Amino acid sequence: MSEKFRDEKDPLGTLKVPAYALYGVQTLRAVQNFPISGLRALPAFVIATVRIKKAAALTHMETGRLDAKLGRAIVSAADEVLGGQHHEHFVVDVYQAGAGTSHNMNTNEILANRANELLGGSRGEYAPVHPNDHVNMAQSTNDVIPTAIRLACLAELDGLVDAYSSLRDELLAKGEEFDDVLKSGRTHLQDAMPIRLGQEFKAYGGTIQRCIRRIQESADYLRDLGIGGSAVGTGVTVEPEYPDLMRKHLTAISGLTLRTGEDRIQLMQSMGDIAAFSASLRGLALDLSKIASDLRLMASGPRTGFDEIRLPAVQPGSSIMPGKVNPSIPEMVNQVCFQVIGNDTCVAISAEHGQLELNVMMPVIAYNVLLSMQILRNAGVSLAERTIEGIEANREQCQYWLERSAALATALAPQIGYARAAEISKQSVKENTLIRELVRREQILPDDQIDEVLDMRKMTEIGVPGGKFGAAAAG
Questions:
Q1: Residue among 294, 299, 322 at smallest CA distance from 309
Q2: Percentage of the chain exceeding pLDDT 90
Q3: Which candidate in 166, 318, 350, 425 is catalytic?
Q4: Residue 278 CB: number of other CB atoms within 10 A?
């Protein structure tokens, strides 16, 4: 059975649009022009755009500019999309004409066609509801798309923050659980002074908390909406009460805390707020990737690596080596973080590449910042639930490496001086002898001071080993 079509006309001519499609001729042109990636607008961006259209219909009914019958039909069509229907009709590729005109018209056509159906009409007739005249009333792509990016990021914010709040809590819980586990610190991947495994995990939790705070602070700038700026930010064709009414309705629809932008020209010209928010996601990715790499390093082994912690086994680690278990979740997290860093680079370059009254690179900005939020959120949940929660400390191995650390000679420096302590460290490595054994054998310290000076638990807190100064201070 051959596919059925309907004829639709725009200023460029007539095209045959699939009869089933809720979209129309302008969307079809975009599909034909941009067969680039197969990637489509992420759901959060679709929802944000439709929320704007719903709010606009409510606003124009309130001002009397839009006939209530038509407005209610647009609102009902929007509610269907917001309820999960019709998303398959948002078909424009991520890489499309600048500013997002194709996505905006895709949305306008879907809502117009569905509104007309609800009023007893047919798809493609665009009567009585027209995509431009009614769904897009007093709007421009140029104020819709930047507003949609802001709304979409804010809508996804709580999920991201919740994921990393849970990860933070899991890390802090491990900090408490491992507080008594002494281990060798490492700087430059070389032996360093003792640290407690719990201190490391507590620090990881603190790092995530600081990332959360930076993300929340940068997100606050997204609450300023430029909707009502119309074509160039001046508000031409827009009722004076429109911006405040839009904020009111968008707040009610989304549940978000929003503000009417004071300078809509500035909000249209600059993608700086979005770029700064993306940069905060990049900051999270940088710290998160470092934590994931640390976990992989501490779990390396189990015979030829550090083997200081044991990660939960989530899948077989090799198709050829039986019994091998890999740090699969941290490896995934590293890859996600690398992608986020790349996404942010794209956002940054795109934000810089606006000209005069508009940034035409908004479609790729929207996709990349929302993709970063999505994959970071999912990676954070997976890391917390499938790795951090089940980590176990290998206490014996931690103790083994700690006793052999050449850096323990540092504790001797306040008593015998840096130069002599360095000699002891070198001698320990050369002879493969523990620092404690050397100190006792060489009678470097009186027997009654050795345990006090080389108290490794005390070395993990602020203070001078041994609690007093020796010959080094006197000299």
A1: 299
A2: 93
A3: 318
A4: 28
Amino acid identity of residue 260, one-letter, is: T
Q: DSSP states of 422-442 as a string?
A: HHHHHHHHHHT--HHHHHHHT
- 17, containing H or E segment: strand 13-18
Tokens of 305: 């690596």
Q: How far apart are CA 198 and CA 222, in angstroms?
A: 37
Q: Does 318 participate in catalysis according to the annotation?
A: yes
Nearest to 456 by CA among 397, 403, 381: 403
Helix (H) or strand (E) holding 392: strand 392-393
One-letter amino acid at 341 equals: I
CA distance 29 to 45: 21
350's enclosing H/E stretch is helix 328-352
pTM, full prediction: 0.95
Domains and CATH numbers, the chain: 5-137 (1.10.275.10), 146-395 (1.20.200.10), 404-474 (1.10.40.30)
Question: What distance in Å separates the CA atoms of residue 438 and residue 367, rounded to the nearest whole number?
Answer: 61
- Scored b (16 or more CB within 10 A) or e, 109-137 reads bbbbbbbbbebebebbebebbbbeebbbb
Question: pLDDT for 103-162, tens place per residue?
Answer: 999 999 999 999 999 999 999 999 999 999 999 999 999 999 999 999 999 999 999 999
What's the rounded Cα separation, in Å, for the pair 23 and 39? 17
- Residue 425 CA to residue 434 CA, distance in Å, equals 9
SS3 314: coil
State the Cα–Cα distance between residues 310 and 219, nearest whole angstrom. Answer: 37
| H or E, element range at 187 | strand 182-187
d(CA 416, CA 421): 7
Confidence of residue 472 (pLDDT cuts 50, 70, 90): low
